[in-house]
Amino acid sequence: MIEEIIGYLGGIFIMVSFIPQVIKSYKTKSVKDLSIWMIIATLVGTVFWIVYGVLINGKPIIIMNTIFGVIVSYQLFLKIKMSHL
Amino acid sequence: MIEEIIGYLGGIFIMVSFIPQVIKSYKTKSVKDLSIWMIIATLVGTVFWIVYGVLINGKPIIIMNTIFGVIVSYQLFLKIKMSHL
Predict the structure, then answer these.
(1) Number of folded domains that form chain A
(2) What is the CATH number of the domain that holds A20?
């Protein structure tokens, strides 16, 4: 049990890590130092985790990764949009 | 079994996502658009996953997350070092 909690905690930290990044990108309107491949690879990972959540019928995993996916998608949108300004 | 593979695939994508980011930061010597909190939160997540790997005695998890931890630590080093240039 404790190991599962620690495993999920790791996932949660990695997920929420994008929140300060999105806030910074939104505020500064500058994204040039961000690798688009980092954002895309993270988004692909999130999709895998949503599928994983569906397969094991884990609602919290599906919900959290969907929220995470939206945040990362928004970061990708900011990256693409601001790169063309 | 298939769900475990998909779960790990998600983790692998999220882990390798930092590789293009580190390469970009190293090449451009510019890190100002990166949130230091994104890097720190990711590093904390990695430490949790190493502990998880130790608890379930999962050598591949320990090895992969240690490599990932080194990459993220290097990104943190670049962020701190280049922010003061």
Answers:
(1) 1
(2) 1.20.1280.290
Residue B59, domain extent: 2-83
Q: Could you report the per-residue pLDDT of A12-58, keeping only the tens digit for each?
A: 898 889 999 999 999 999 999 999 999 999 999 999 999 999 999 88
Q: Smallest Cα–Cα separation from A25: which of A78, A83, A80, A73?
A: A78
Chain B hits for A17, Cβ within 8 Å: 37-42, 45
Cα–Cα distance, B79 to B25 (Å, whole number): 8
The reply to whether residue A13 touches residue B41, judged by beta carbons under 8 angstroms, is yes
Give A40's contacts (C-beta < 8 A, 6+ positions apart). Answer: A76, B17
Q: Give the span between the Cα atoms of B53 and B66, in whole angstroms.
A: 10
**How many Å apart are CA A68 and CA A34, to the nearest integer?**
18
Here the tokens at position A7 are: 């495993």
**Facing residue for A35 by CB, picked from B13, B21, B47:** B21
User: Residue B60 has what pLDDT?
Assistant: 85
**Partners of residue B2 in chain A, C-beta under 8 Å:** 55
Which residues 23-62 in chain A show a CB within 8 A of chain B? 23-25, 28, 30-35, 37-42, 44-49, 51-52, 55-56
